[in-house]
Write a structure and sequence with these properties.
This protein is 50% helix and 14% strand. It has 6 helices and 3 strands; from the N terminus they run H-E-E-E-H-H-H-H-H. Strand 2 and strand 3 form a beta hairpin. Helix 1 runs parallel beside helix 3 and helix 5 runs antiparallel to helix 6. The chain starts with 12 loop residues before the first helix and ends with a helix. The model has no long low-confidence stretch (mean pLDDT 91).
Length: 165
């Protein structure tokens, strides 16, 4: 198994969220939101005239990686809860790292805001660019052909919902 960034972090999730918010402010974001539902947390922000959304999948607390030891024995409820909390903290630290690295790449001139955040940019209909084109890109790789009309077609609902200028 590969080592994960911040796998043993003790940094609480609320501190990672706070760090994310401060980082976004420092790099010029004008809005920030956070929420969760079920096994997913969401952060969103507005910067450079774009709305950006990151979905953070949270692990299943009843998953065997938490309820069983490496040898297959059942963990105590406290040990399982501790393992789950550690996994959630790790994911929040990783998300904070990703967002900070993208913003710094833009600020340093290594990349552009659009390139770094394209997949997470929210379109007028509410879906992200990544959600909108993911299947079309997979299809292009599977067939070895890019069907430009099909890729453009997936944008049609978003284009129709966009305000005209």
């Amino acid at each position: 198994m590969t080592a994960r960034y911040a796998a043993d972090t003790e940094v609480p999730t609320d501190r990672s969220r706070g760090e994310l918010e401060k980082t976004l402010l420092r790099y010029g974001a004008t809005q920030f939101l956070y929420g969760w539902s079920g096994k997913r947390a969401t952060i969103g922000f507005t910067a450079n005239g774009r709305s950006i959304r990151f979905e953070l999948p949270l692990p299943d607390p009843a998953g065997e990686e938490f309820t069983l030891t490496e040898t297959g024995r059942e963990r105590s409820a406290k040990a399982a809860a501790d393992a789950y909390d550690r996994a959630v903290r790790q994911r929040w630290r990783a998300l904070a790292l990703v967002v900070k690295a993208k913003l710094e790449a833009v600020a340093s001139g290594i990349s552009t805001f659009e390139d770094e955040f394209l997949a997470s940019t929210v379109l007028p209909g509410g879906a992200t660019v990544g959600e909108t084109v993911r299947d079309g890109v997979s299809q292009a790789y599977a067939t070895g052909r890019v069907d430009a009309a099909a890729l453009l077609g997936v944008f049609r609902p978003a284009l129709e919902a966009a305000p005209t200028r």
